[in-house]
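Project standup — Tuesday

K.O.: blocked on the structure for the chain from last sprint. Re-posting the sequence here as requested.
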Amino acid sequence: MSTRPETLEFLFDQLGDLPGLRARRMFGEYCVYVDDKPVAFVCDDLLYVKPTDAGQGIMNPPVWGSFYEKIKPHLLVTPDRWDERDWLRSLVMATAEALPRPKPKAPRKTTKPPAAKKRQA
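H.V.: unblocked you, prediction finished:
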């Protein structure tokens, strides 16, 4: 089962105008970014927030879940908590603030193709 577009739309409506809020399709599901930091994943219509001390403090007691077998557990926010808009926004913002800025990507090395030799007639 994959995430329905309505799910992502509802979550974004709840999160409102967080700085740089966007989603990117990944592995058939979605990664949620705030201020260019990947803070959460929406998989199978569930929200998984990256684990941070700040997030765990807001989600007390924390609920854990994994969206893939081999990934470390994330904070699982089930749909019954999505209506708590202020709480959800504070959880996502606290997580974003606790995460480090992404490392700048190294510029791609461009190689020039070898010059074509002129053919002599």
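K.O.: great, moving the ticket to review. The chain has a mean pLDDT of 89. Residues 46 and 78 are 6 Å apart (CA to CA).
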